[in-house]
Amino acid sequence: MKQKKTAAAVIAAMLAGFAVAKAPEADPALVDEVVAQLMGQPDLHTEQSQKPDGQAIRNDAVRRLQTLEVLKNGALQAGLDKDKGVQNRFKIAEASFYAQEYVRFLERSETVSEDELRAFYERQTRMVKLQQVGFATEGEARQAQQLLLKGLSFEGLMKRYPNDEQAFDGFIMAQQLPEPLASQFAGMNRGDVTRDPIRLGGRYYLFKLSEVGKNPDAQPFELVRNQLEQGLKQEKARLKIDALLEENGVKP
């Protein structure tokens, strides 16, 4: 009888050794956060015509968190948290995370008016034609500028200082102009000439805004209003970020 009990105890111990380990608990608040992230993905369940399975998504979130916790514990047990390289990469990842969150915070905090949205739409859909003359030095460009001030037409200046680039006579999107051209022409009207020579590619140019139009393929304002609002908020946030960087001695 005693031998039977001993054998039974051995078998029980062996079976206990094969018992399935208990998965780590997932914090419900973290599960909610992962679910929100998954639900926010635009390509989630794109092939399904029915409503996404909320419970399946939540189960997936739990598994993801459990996997992260198990692997994190494995890393800590392996002493990776003491590795200098790992510590440095963690600091970089942490800084990047907070930086991205701050950018999102600034974008959410911005407000835009209807007038601002419509002005932004005009900028996004504006097309321009430019005329130009180019010079090797700024001094030469300013000498030519004096001819304009004395009454020479810009077309006459182009004939006096021809170059191959003048053959291009098509419309281009104003928003695609490189800096500092984009900033220069933002407030200019048809017929205006740049006040100072602009340096591009090692040469100096005088430009004239010869024609202004609108992108014929542009969607109506009302159809893209939401995208415009998001884009304008992002632009405002970028300006604040650039100012913040300059205040802290960092060149944007």
Automatic annotation (TrEMBL):
Subcellular location: Cell inner membrane
Pfam families: Rotamase_2
Record-annotated PpiC domain positions: 112-225
Keywords: Cell inner membrane, Cell membrane, Chaperone, Membrane, Signal
Gene3D superfamilies reported in the protein's UniProt record: 3.10.50.40
Predominant place of localization: membrane
Membrane topology: Single-pass type II membrane protein
GO cellular component term of the entry, any: plasma membrane
Annotated InterPro entries: PPIase_dom_sf, PPIase_PpiC, PpiD_chaperone
Taxonomy, superkingdom: Bacteria
Signal peptide start-end: 1-21
GO molecular function: peptidyl-prolyl cis-trans isomerase activity
Protein name per Swiss-Prot or TrEMBL: Periplasmic chaperone PpiD
